[in-house]
């Protein structure tokens, strides 16, 4: 691995250790929670070589879990904290980024299935959000009085993405550790022109999930983070999963990095908080907890009903290389028709994947503590890593 020179820009050093939500990383002692047979997997050497190759190309730390007919393989490489020389372990807790949206999609269906207590039924998917949200919000959100809860889950709203607003990033730099409220985020897109008419196409927008959690809270009169614990995290015993800033992060969380100047020098951006905790991002977890979640959802199909899972997988129009269901992505579509269902996570300083390929019965879950939400030389390296991983797992 290269020797990285760490530069911390003025905006970052202004974040005091006292205020920082991600503390300097301590060694994680979370081990494989089953009898590890990775060394016996037929692709053990190939998976290990893949991690070594892309660590050598510059990705700071990687953890990977692959489950197929031959069993479950897990491995890791690199550093969780470069400055402190802390290794990135197989059980390393890192940021799932937009995989948070998959959790929120599942939460909506859990609430629907418990309609006797939540008052939310399947018809909620086709109900306009102004049924729950006040006109002071929907009147200023582009298309706000036209879009449904389902449109938000499927990214078919035409609502601009708060993450793409320059004013928002300036606000983040001026106050890196600010805990954003949903209404504060919406102000960055209020009264802007809609990107398209609802249902005309699908274009990914983080703002959609802000609206989803606002609907959840308005309908149930409960905090969505509490509902996430009640319906998903606690029943699945996801003890190493946290939702920033609603939960205090452990001191074993990996640092997140980005090549801010595109000069092969990476910067620690762990505490640039781009709205975590508002549905579109903020969950931290590890490959083991995500595998438990993924198994219950897609393999055992016990987390939600088959009816709900079938509706989740009702896909709309294509956006780039993805089709969107209700809270999930259909991606990595192969010439022979194979595809993955799950979600990608791409953040300023972290990346992750959770995908299940139903035709092959193959799962891949990974964390990389490098951001691929913005352009950089290492983003191309990361893309090649994902392409090789998908090809290798589907062989």
Automatic annotation (TrEMBL):
Entry keyword annotation includes Calcium: no
Pfam families named among the record's database cross-references: Beta-lactamase (PF00144)
Sorted UniProt keywords: Hydrolase
Record keyword Hydrolase present: yes
Protein name: Class A beta-lactamase-related serine hydrolase
GO molecular function: hydrolase activity
Taxonomic path: Bacteria, Pseudomonadati, Bacteroidota, Chitinophagia, Chitinophagales
Residues of the Beta-lactamase-related domain: 49-376
